[in-house]
């Protein structure tokens, strides 16, 4: 009959797991027979899932850092708790490894194997993507992902590409009702450490392995650094991600290179087990000959960092003003104004524009105008009686120039007249500097596609009042 201790462990094992992402949780030496031997080892700054204060961000490190979509030269390789060669506590020591020996880097699949379906797997690589393992004797505290991804198997750089494995090792699973989980539970039963076995499925999740061989040249008596880099990018053309998206997850690790007598001893004390330690004692069968569908990170990269892919690796942080020569939506009248038949009274539509004057060969300068993103100011000459009349419907009266909004609208360069705030109907206001006699007919909504700024045009005035157009340019008026 299982003890309360083992029953509790089994219950913890099937509790909801940390979904979504993965990181190296434990390291084991693998002997020539494919058996886990020696003591347990852990990454830098390790925090166990059962430790107080653990959150998904305690170990998870996703690149690029938001809001970037693609990795670039600045992407930091290591989690902020893993930039230096330090362990988090005595209960999570470095693995003692052997030069030339194989190591299993163990991690939970967290649904990336057993919960993938056509929808969740859309645009994702086969077998859960690729894990690249790099090694170096010269780690940097500010290590950059791109520097490491350029390391190759020949080791001519500061580090070496040691291994490429599919994320899915063909046996790992979480406990769930999917066919693949049930099949693997039956084929590779796993149990909690100390749990009684009866030959059936143990009901304990089985972590995946990434297998890597420590270089025979790794110096003894010194730490050797391993970088676990999981590439799980989304391909271009995927629904919701038309340009694709990078997703890299990393774990930074040091192992102490020592003798086989110390590292591989079957009698090594296993006192550093996890709080939810499993009893699996065998590595995957092909631990010493594994490869991957993708063997070069360039093959799986969807951004522009390697000189192909998308044209930009990061969205523009600040809207860019369009070129002045491209501005064509200067407000226009719906029809030509009729000649004045009265005492010269006129309705004036004043367009506030931002201009660039370029001196040319002729005596007349060339002016290129751009309009504010929304709103314009309507002014009028006094009526014949000299008494101001109420503004036309839909036009508000203001004693001051249009008040700028909190920030310029996209496409407006600094120095351009800001848009009128939304408090004024469609950005229109009447200047009180010249008390206005408005036309009998109010401005009307422009039809779709109208070139009128702010969506309004000025109708033809009736009676004696004739309309004229004035464009004010830095204190000058061209009629």
Automatic annotation (TrEMBL):
The keyword Signal applies. It holds the Pfam family DUF7492. Residues 376-415, 435-455 are annotated as: Disordered. Residues 18-280 form the DUF7492 domain. It comes from the Eukaryota. The keyword Signal applies. InterPro entries: DUF7492 (IPR055915). Keywords: Signal. Residues 379-415, 435-450 have a biased composition (Low complexity). Residues 1-20 form the signal peptide. This is DUF7492 domain-containing protein.
């Amino acid at each position: 009959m299982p003890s309360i201790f083992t029953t509790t462990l089994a219950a913890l094992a099937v509790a909801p797991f940390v979904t979504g992402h993965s990181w190296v949780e434990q390291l084991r030496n693998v002997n020539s027979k494919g058996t886990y031997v020696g003591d347990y080892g852990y990454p830098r700054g390790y925090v166990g899932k059962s430790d107080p204060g653990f959150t998904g961000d305690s170990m998870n490190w996703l690149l690029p850092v938001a809001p970037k979509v693609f990795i670039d030269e600045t992407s930091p390789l290591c989690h902020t708790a893993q930039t230096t060669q330090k362990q988090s506590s005595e209960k999570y020591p470095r693995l003692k490894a052997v030069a030339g020996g194989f190591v299993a880097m163990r991690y939970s699949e967290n649904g990336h194997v057993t919960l993938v379906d056509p929808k969740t797997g859309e645009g994702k690589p086969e077998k859960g993507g690729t894990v690249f393992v790099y090694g170096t004797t010269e780690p940097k505290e500010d290590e950059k992902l791109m520097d490491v991804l350029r390391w190759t198997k020949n080791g001519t750089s500061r580090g070496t590409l040691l291994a490429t494995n599919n994320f899915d090792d063909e046996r790992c699973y979480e406990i769930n009702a999917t066919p693949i989980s049930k099949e693997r539970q039956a084929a590779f039963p796993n149990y909690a450490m100390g749990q009684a076995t009866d030959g059936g499925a143990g009901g304990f999740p089985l972590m995946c392995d990434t297998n890597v061989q420590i270089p025979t040249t790794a110096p003894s008596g010194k730490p050797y650094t391993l970088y676990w880099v999981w590439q799980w990018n989304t391909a271009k053309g995927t629904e919701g991600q038309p340009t694709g998206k990078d997703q890299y997850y990393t774990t930074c690790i040091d192992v102490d290179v020592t003798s086989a007598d110390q590292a591989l001893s079957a009698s090594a004390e296993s006192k550093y087990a996890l709080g939810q330690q499993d009893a699996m004692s065998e590595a995957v069968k092909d631990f010493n000959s594994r490869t991957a569908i993708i063997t070069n990170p360039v093959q799986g990269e969807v951004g522009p960092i390697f000189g192909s892919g998308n044209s930009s690796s990061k969205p523009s942080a600040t809207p860019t003003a369009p070129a002045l020569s491209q501005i064509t939506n200067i407000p226009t009248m719906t029809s030509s104004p009729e000649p004045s038949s009265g005492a010269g009274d006129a309705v004036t539509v004043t367009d506030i524009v931002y201009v660039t004057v370029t001196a040319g060969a002729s005596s007349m300068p060339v002016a290129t105008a751009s309009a504010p993103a929304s709103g314009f100011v309507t002014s009028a000459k006094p009526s014949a009686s000299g008494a101001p009349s109420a503004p036309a419907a839909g036009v508000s009266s203001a004693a001051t120039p249009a008040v700028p909004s909190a920030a310029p609208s996209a496409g407006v360069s600094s120095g351009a007249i800001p848009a009128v705030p939304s408090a004024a109907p469609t950005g229109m206001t009447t200047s009180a500097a010249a008390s206005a006699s408005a036309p009998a007919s109010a401005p009307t909504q422009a039809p779709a596609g109208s070139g009128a700024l702010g969506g309004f045009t000025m109708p033809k005035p009736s009676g004696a009042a004739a309309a004229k157009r004035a464009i004010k340019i830095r204190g000058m008026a061209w009629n």
